[in-house]
Amino acid sequence: MNSYPPELLVQLAPVMFVAGLDAPLVPPSSPAPSTTSKSQDAFAVLTMRLRDALLNQRKVAIWQPEKAKSFQVILVDRDVRFPPRKMAPNDDSPHLPGHSPLSPLTPSSPLHPDGLIAPIWIRKHTTLVPSVFVLFMRIFEEQEERKRDVDLAAYIALRKKSTNERGIKLTVVLLASRRMLDDPSLDARLTFIRKQSGLDARAALFVLSPVSQAELGDFVQSLQQALYEPAVEYYTSHSKRVRRKRNRHTQALSSYSNPISPLGTAGASRPLRPEGWTVRYEYKMACFAEFRGEDEVALKHYQDAYEVLAIMFGSIAILPPRTKRWAEAKVLADCINVKIVKLYMYNNEHALALSHHTTHIRKFGDLSRGWSIGEDTFEYWSWVARQYRILSELMEQGTHSSLTYLLTNRSSPQAASRGSTPALELDGLRSLGLNPSHALQHPGFYYYMAARCTEMRRERFLATLEAEARLFWKRGVSSSPGFANEKKVDHLLYTKAYELFKKHTPTLPQSQSQARLTLWIAYRIGQTYFDSGKFDMAVRFFERIARTYRRESWDTMLRPLLTTWYACVQQLGDVELSVRLLIEMLGHGLEDVDEPGTLQGDLLEVLKSTVPTTPDEPLLIDSSESQPICKFDCDVVFWQTEVKVGESAAFQMTITAPEDVAISDLPFTSLTITFAGTYGPVTLQHVDGESSNISNRYLSLGTISEEPKTLETSLRWQQGSSLILSGTMVSHVPTTLRVEDLDIQIPLDPTSSRTGSPQPLSHKWLSCVSPPRFIDIKREDPSSVFVRYRSHSVELDLSHPSPACIDEEYPITIEVTNVDDQDLEIFVDILLQPTEVDDADNSIIIDGESSSSFIKGVPFGTLSPGENCVKVLHLTSTGGAGDRILDISLQSRSKKSFNGEPIEDVSEVLKTVVVPTVAALSITHDIVYRRSLKDRMGLADLRAFDEDFWDDGQGGEAEVNLMIECAGPWSILMEKLTLQRQDNDEAKVLEASSDDDDSDLPSEYFPGDQFSVWCRISLSPSEYPSPAIPSVGQYAIHWRRIHEDGTHGPSSKSTVSLPSLRPPTDGLIGLLHIAPTARLHQTIPLSLIIRNNHPSRAANITVHVELDPSDGFVISGIRNGRIPILLPGSEEKVMWNLIPIECGHVALPRIKVIDRRKVVQESTEAEEELVKIVDVRLDYRREEAEEKDEDSESPTEKETNSPLAVVGTVFVSP
User: Fold this and answer.
1) 808 in Cβ contact with 1049 (< 8 Å)
2) How would you classify the pairing of strands 132-138 and 169-175?
3) 1106 has which bridge partners?
4) Percent of all residues in the chain with a pLDDT value above 90, rounded to a whole number
5) What is the per-residue pLDDT for 239?
């Protein structure tokens, strides 16, 4: 971050000037020393503590996301002067308005005539002009000095005048002794000082006495809290002033014309263009918003300034490249980008922060090509490295506070350097919903990117340096200031990335990819040391890195490291390390294609021409962690996959020399083949009689026995030549036959090919020596053969009456029969597979042992030939219907012996049984809700405090009807049905049909038969609107399956829970109640109960009866009227008397209930809002999710969706 002005990067905070704390504050008087010495010491300590407390409130830093109401405190002199706001107009043009000294319109300004923003403007508002001014002074305490309060007030008034001119809040803190605080005249003196000095009435005058450190901290916090709002108002006024200027500038933008320089003044400076003024104003408003702590507003203005600045860079006419203003604007754009990224990170919007940073690099990278600063210049890579470095430094500061980032990254270093991710890893991240380019990593990644860019910068610089030596380029290149500065740059940047990768890499097995990336960065450090000629430092890094690469078999990464390492060792002259590296390089096949045999020749030359450090001791090369020297491809093939005990197993072994390295001159002396088990080794001694130029040599080993065997053959290999060995093996016990090890001076794994060489397409068997012919062996692993006993003859039979039913113990018969010629001990393992059925809880039972998943070792005893054993397994299934899968494993064992030692012969039979499971009973339910007609309790009714209090006036009642159907393929015997009540605080069962003693159970039900049960539930919800009320009970149904032969299965129990209740809610409702029948000319009562069920709103109700000459009733009662205000939860009852004058079904008079309060609230011209009236004779409702079927014409639907005034009928008889 040192590349940019710190003023453009720091986090801005309100500035507070503090004056009067420069030295111990002593009033201008001459007190007696004996009485004031202690007091002066106390005030001196108070002054020092105040300075420390104020200065420690907030430090100047770039990363400060905290939103505390704190100030950046600056200690100043009492008589400090503020810089002038505007410069006086020139004598030549006194009529023109003055401008700020830093304005581009001021000739003496560093920005004149076309500058944007200078760091000195930020410095002005952070160090020269505060938002609040705090003045500490001593109040005079002696009796004869109180008259000097006038002088004190006059000084404060003078200071107040200077702060008022800048709109700065002035606060005075008077320091007084504790004795002075108890003086009754203190309040009058303070009032006099405040009025005489013109201080504000709010947060302008404080009194402080010497207090403890803790109390002083509280005072400083309270002082900042009191002055924070005036500081915000100060910066808000600045923002409004700048916004007015911007608006005036925007209005005048359309009339702006670019002034043309007169003839002969082509080099004259042009004034700042409208785009530049826009950038200037937006940047200022962003800074003032940042002073106020409004990060979102600051972010918006920074983005607007950045966009306009990018437009200016797009025109060479506005910002000519490589000029002073162009360089200043480029620095400003980079700093605004840092501000935007930082504000995004404050808000934990990491993807947006990284996206903006990437867009900034891409956008200015495109612009750089137009400025002739493309990817082929060191200036471009210097700028890109600076962007990544400042991002990493910003994040490193953020990690010390609240910044978090992604801990796992799967991309390789090569991909990171190219800015891309491998396709498979990219698809994996996309499947997780994460864009890799938007995933914020730890700072080490971006230090690594900066280092990679710096390497590119160094390459371009070296290329330019070579061009500097040529006369044609010398004048144009070396004269560039950037080129001269580039010669002084240190290009080593990997160290910081390496340290951060080590710090942020978790020590977990799954974090090995990041650990390897750390090693890759360490390798780049070593490579950089090698390029700079520091070979000893490079060797230290290569030794540590190679150790891990060898252990984890990263040969692709190890090969280039070995080449560079060997080049360093050659420069250092280390003989022993050279021998070790050459042997390891031979193992990896690092042969020069143009000069084959180079490694072999170098090794022999070093061994012949140099002397080790200890000539009397042999040089031991430990290659346990690395590739062995000249590792051969070894292919072992057995002709058969499996043989029986006592049969011969033929095998062939093909040993092939590497093709990419020459080893014909290496003097191998012997080859030892070791076999698994008790077989003796076979040793091949080298003889020179046989030519080593034959590509395929053959040698028969005969039958391998327990005795060691020694044969002779040539052990010199040309590149790619093979030695084919054949033989047979016999075993009298079950085992696995294989070749265990080959030793050509070092161990060799006989079942794997050389690392880095292509795997053979197929294993081959030599069928003819001359000419050589091979047969492809296409088995998966022919390098070993299994010797087994023959399998036992055992029959496993499973029978069951499919399908099974839910909640029943389903029997499965297991029958085992021994059809072998020997006694067999039988055990059975039973595995119940997990099922995908929801809420399934399955279990199995056999021989009294129960499990939900696995029962092991169920004994069936020892069965003689022809004997069988039968056991019954019970499967219990709950939850939903679906298949249940059982895996049954039968193990048979017979005891044998070999050489006096017992050998166990085991065979296994596997069977899988799928049990279809269906539901025996199908349950459907129907719920109907009714409103309660009981009188509502008053708000002050004391019965609500009784323990057995129950109020269903709000909830009403629910009727639940369950339809139970015999859904299985079998008939069932229903034995018993009971309701197990589970009443709660919101619902209880009143009555149920299952409570009747005259039930017709037990009874038989055939498939498709149905029966129903009914219950009535009282509801008393505790909340409005009411959430779902939990179930109040469950039905227990006891039943048995009826088999085809008429027998009954075991008793089963199914439970059916009552559904949860969701009663519909009412707001304002009218309940109409009248008898269904009446006599002609006889009075019948009609009542209307108006209930207000709203939890918080009262209702203003009017009732209207609309009479019509055709009505069949004479009505007595209210026609139009208003009822008292209905409070929430209250009701009102209205009565009428009706006399029928017609016979038959006579319609009731039309009644309207209007909520006047709702009409007044919505609008003065709104239509009448009718309250729903429900005839309680037709009152039954469904749950809210089941209502409003447009095609239904039932009375309930009419009650639900009909007009709010319901007209019922009464049957009138003569």
Assistant:
1) yes
2) parallel
3) 1150
4) 18
5) 93
Which amino acid appears at position 151 of this protein?
A: D
In the structure encoding, which two tokens stand for residue 778, read together? 């296409």
- The residue whose two tokens read 């707001």 is 1067
pLDDT digits (tens, 9 = 90+) for 1160-1205: 555 555 456 788 888 888 877 887 654 444 343 333 333 444 444 4
Residues 6+ apart with CB under 8 A from 897: 903
Q: Which amino acid is at 1016?
A: R
Question: For residue 55, with 0-12 CB atoms within 10 Å meaning exposed, 13-18 middle and 19 or more buried, which class applies?
Answer: middle
Amino acid at 24: P
Q: What is the pTM of this model?
A: 0.52
At residue 627, the pLDDT reads 59
pLDDT(71) > 90 = yes
Q: Are 1167 and 1152 in contact (CB under 8 A)?
A: no
Binned at pLDDT 50, 70 and 90, residue 653 comes out as confident
- Which of these ranges, 342-356, 418-432, 1000-1014, has the smallest mean pLDDT? 418-432
Q: Are the beta carbons of 676 and 738 closer than 8 angstroms? A: yes
At 594-608, the pLDDT tens digits run: 556 566 667 666 666
Beta strands in 132-265 (DSSP E): 132-138, 169-175, 205-208
Helices 295-313 and 274-292: crossing angle, nearest 10°? Answer: 160
Q: Could you give the CA distance from residue 45 to residue 25 in angstroms, rounded to a whole number?
A: 11
Q: Both tokens of residue 639?
A: 């002709």
Structure tokens at 91: 């004598």
Nearest Cα neighbor of 1091 from 951, 930, 928, 931 is 931
689 burial class (0-12, 13-18, 19+ CB within 10 angstroms)?
exposed
CB-based burial of residue 278 (10 Å sphere; 0-12 exposed, 13-18 middle, 19+ buried)?
buried
Gap between the Cα atoms of 1095 and 1129, Å rounded: 7
Is residue 650 pLDDT above 80, yes or no? yes
Question: Distance between the two ends of the chain, CA-based, in angstroms?
Answer: 104
Specify the DSSP element, H or E, that contains 255: none
**Highest mean pLDDT, choosing among 15-19, 370-374, 733-737, 1061-1065:** 15-19
Structure tokens at 937: 């309790």
Contact assessment for residue 294 and residue 286, using Cβ atoms and an 8 Å cutoff? no
* Residue 867 one-letter amino acid: E
Q: Residue 1116 phi/psi, 5° resolution? A: -125, 120
SS3 percent helix, strand, coil of the chain, rounded to 5, is 35, 25, 40
Residue 787 has pLDDT above 50, yes or no: yes
What's the burial of 1047, exposed, middle or buried (CB within 10 Å: 0-12/13-18/19+)?
exposed
Beta strands 1172-1175 and 1068-1074 are parallel
Q: Are strands 1209-1213 and 1144-1147 parallel, antiparallel or unpaired?
A: antiparallel
Q: How far apart are CA 926 and CA 962, in angstroms?
A: 7
Mean pLDDT of 343-355: 90
Paired residues of 828 in beta bridges: 858, 890
Mean pLDDT of the chain: 79
Q: Which residue has the tokens 């106390």?
A: 42
Residues in the chain: 1214
One DSSP character per residue, 705-769 reads -SS-EEEEE-----TT-EEEEEEEEE-SSSEEEEEEEEESSSEE-TTSPPTTSPPPSSEEEEEET
Tokens of 164: 């008022």
Instruction: Give the range among 153-162, 651-660, 1131-1140 with minimum mean pLDDT.
Output: 651-660
Which burial class, exposed, middle or buried, applies to 627 when counting CB atoms under 10 A from its CB (0-12, 13-18, 19+)?
buried
**Cα dihedral 255, 261, 267, 268 in deg (nearest 10):** -70
| Selected residue with higher pLDDT from 991 and 546 | 991
Determine the Cα–Cα distance for residues 1163 and 1160; give it in Å rounded to an integer. 6
DSSP 3-state of 378: helix
pLDDT digits (tens, 9 = 90+) for 959-1012: 999 898 898 888 888 888 888 898 888 888 888 888 876 566 778 888 888 888
